[in-house]
Amino acid sequence: DTAVSQTPKYLVTQMGNDKSIKCEQNLGHDTMYWYKQDSKKFLKIMFSYNNKELIINETVPNRFSPKSPDKAHLNLHINSLELGDSAVYFCASSQQGNTEAFFGQGTRLTVV
Amino acid sequence: AQSVTQLGSHVSVSEGALVLLRCNYSSSVPPYLFWYVQYPNQGLQLLLKYTSAATLVKGINGFEAEFKKSETSFHLTKPSAHMSDAAEYFCAVSDESFQKLVFGTGTRLLVSP
After folding, report:
1. Which residue of A36, A44, A83, B105 has the fewest C-beta atoms within 10 A of its own C-beta?
2. What is the structure's pLDDT at B41?
């Protein structure tokens, strides 16, 4: 019974395409995140949502648009994909005020 | 701003040897500190956390870490390495408002027979 699940696990697409990554958590948490891990394994937060409200947007390009239809889901839509967007994207969740985050398995995005 | 520094991008040990992965933090408030492990092609799994209670924190898989305020350190140790411990290890600190984690650059642990 996966706590934080993301789909797809792998995504290969051409430059200029638009793609989405979905994330769902069944832990009852009210805060969800997107982190990006680059080719050097460096992890950095992109967004966080608390009860469907955007809390953090770490100067991510406008081509990235998160959407939280409810507190158990946080999807990431990326427009006009660029080569530099290639990375592993992790969804995570936590309880508000508790930054102990539970991570999904990651989505490896490759833009060709 | 909060930050963590992990010394050594790679650490190699023999099976059965002591594991020591170093993490130093910088924080303007009493920190919450975490160690996560990432196995190949997998997500991050919490090993242990420090949240201002006991300074010696025990985690899963025989790992432990000691919070030393005077040294601003939170090093991860395990008395005896196992082949299955080979992975990437990340130290992280909560930001000042406890709204996100700030990660170190990671340390790859290699375990040889």
Report:
1. A83
2. 84
- How far is the alpha carbon of A53 from chain B, nearest alpha carbon, in Å? 13
* CB pair distance less than 8 Å for B90 and A43: yes
What is the distance of C-alpha A76 from the center of its chain? 6
pLDDT tens for each residue of B52-97? 778 999 999 999 999 999 999 999 999 999 999 999 999 999 887 7
Q: Do B44 and A90 make contact, defined as CB atoms within 8 angstroms?
A: yes
Average pLDDT of span A15-29: 96
User: Under a CB-based contact definition with an 8 Å cutoff, are residues A90 and A106 in contact?
Assistant: yes
SS3 state of residue B35: strand
Nearest CA in chain A to B37: A103
